[in-house]
Amino acid sequence: MLHATELLGGETYDRDGHFVGHVTELFVEPADQPNRVARILLGRGKYLPLLARYDHLAFVAPGVLKLNVEEKELEHYQPNEGWLAVRKDLLDQQIIDTSGRKVVRVNDIDLSEQRTNGTVELRVTHVDVGLTGAARRLLHGVASPGLIRGIATKLPTRVIPWEFVNLIESDPLRRVKLRITQIVETLDPEKAADILEEMDPDQAADILAGLPPETSRDVLREMPGEEAREVRELLKFEENSAGGMMNTDFIYVGEKATCEEVIAWIQEKDVDLEQLDTIFLIDTDAKLTGAVAVGRLLLAPASEGMEALKSEPWLAVLPDARDKEVFELFDKYNLHSLAVVDEGGRPIGAIAVDDVVTRLRNG
What we know:
By secondary structure, the protein is of the alpha+beta class. The protein has helices at residues 4-7, 86-90, 131-139, 145-152, 180-186, 189-197, 201-209, 213-222, 225-235, 242-245, 259-268, 294-299, 323-333, 353-362, and strands at residues 2-3, 11-13, 19-29, 33-44, 47-53, 57-61, 64-67, 75-76, 84-85, 94-97, 102-105, 108-116, 119-128, 159-161, 165-167, 176-178, 252-254, 278-282, 288-293, 316-317, 337-341, 347-352.
């Protein structure tokens, strides 16, 4: 098993052992072989970059590629919109399902080797959306490939099979989309539940809402109790309401806590740091009293109380609020996140600006 981060920046040599260039990009041709690395872009400093075809590759290892042709047989690079660029179009991109909802960030790409008639074809097998891929990205160029692999093996793996991923060519933003809804319908309930467990509750609820009722019930029965409960609660709300837009996976702390205490608490929890933008505050009656931007938390003195960092004005909506009202609040106050509260003023979820942008785009 190889990984895109191990090849990008790697040295490439031709048949005679002459240095050709560094790997700057890997291209897939979805219309031809949807999982084959069809072209390898080789940067050469001030000289024009070259392209090596999939059948030019004789040997590959972390940081090193060897070709079975001479440099003069390689073609000069010409952009092609039909190609999917691993670095540009995949790495660091959000995988979203076909309804346009954000799922996870791509940290790395897993590749397998297929040897045929003296050549080595690279095939994309998985997108890495977990800590292993993130560690490889952070340590790339800092530690040796062997050391990086040793560290990565000690971390939990979280990957999505490549066949679940689809590039929508007509999408002007060239986003990669996860064909979750279609895939879930073809899997048995237990495997489908495994996929939905990896999503935020609001995303899982959106997927289940689009399935036949019987299928949705079967999948819910296979999900762990707490995850299933959160999803069932979200399914009660109309799609175009605040409740239908909110995510129940959000952070709230007591307003009397200090910055130091909150940071320590977050570090102990399994928190998706990429989606951690706002921390909501509650009083001793569990009622919402405000919100603190994570940036203010990180810059404040350790002993500072969270209550002193509240943004003004602090806003919230009831779950039955219409999406138009939500859009207007985000626009008027330039919000990054908006709390959803029950009739008693207790927070039950939060709406992120990404979800608002997606709804407006799809609307």
